[in-house]
């Protein structure tokens, strides 16, 4: 073999390694930024007001459930080399269709909120009306899926947006000088425990389409099979760490403002926190964070929701990018012409909390069936911890349904 050929092969390997690293980071950030959307910004602010340092326990519980859910789901998707709905159909014919319907309906409903959040972000950042801001943001999201290498563009957007969110949140948290020691104690020994806060946060950050976002992205990129499990695990852990940093940074920023005795504006709690922490420029910073959180959630919800119906028809598979664009257009039109359908969001939020136990439970059954996974042996500790998440989330989901359905009617 000539020196020129050897050099060429080394260059090809280097490019492939760089490409894989970008895909792994993209999948991690897609999951992380999807779980830290506009709803999470508001929920964290409101619940920190109510629970103060004790909210650290809620974040800890949500991250713990996140770890066990993500490690199981990403690993099983990689091993079976199938999407969530395909695995479900192999466990029980028709179950995949039910799961896909729940994911798509939940994703569509929450994407209306994401679009609204993007509009509010540009309103705070540039002074645009929320409706115009939402439309501009939707156009930006749509452009991502019109690019030939849409998946690569998506990877870059969520990475850049994720890094911006982390840096700004850490900056505001530093400026507010929160009582970190008190928060650490309350992480394991909370003064107050709110089951409703746990239900809301877990349902909004681990439920629905979010746990499948990264796994489906890696599958579409060809990073699958037992031989790639180390990469899949690394990517899922990276996503969980990024999620944790974002959640903790925002919590500490809010806690710092509260600990100073400052009064948060109830009409826009998260914006008020940033304004109190850094002054008028803080309000602009909030706009940047809100927009980044919203645009990545729009992209993540649309991409993952459509990935749940791609296998049902060759036409859907062929035109999935255009269907993703249609998904975004419907979300935006609903917000622009009807407004945010609060009651529907509440009901679907309750249903969203039930999607994870159904999905994870189904995948755990699949992981222990030879006809689906072949000779692969799913780690016992993952099966046990995953089972605990299924039972706990099922219980919390039922509590949410009982609480919220009467409000819908």
TrEMBL record:
Membrane topology according to the record: Multi-pass membrane protein
Domain of life: Bacteria
Listed GO biological process terms: iron ion transmembrane transport
The entry's keywords: Membrane, Transmembrane, Transmembrane helix
Membrane-spanning parts: 51-71, 91-112, 124-145, 157-174, 194-215, 236-261, 281-309, 321-338, 344-367, 379-402
GO CC annotations on file: plasma membrane
Subcellular location: Membrane
InterPro entries the UniProt entry points to: NRAMP_fam
GO function terms (MF aspect): cadmium ion transmembrane transporter activity; manganese ion transmembrane transporter activity
PANTHER family in UniProt: SOLUTE CARRIER PROTEIN FAMILY 11 MEMBER, TRANSPORTER PROTEIN
Name listed for the protein in its UniProt record: Mn2+ and Fe2+ transporters of the NRAMP family
Top-level taxonomy: Bacteria, Bacillati, Bacillota, Bacilli, Bacillales
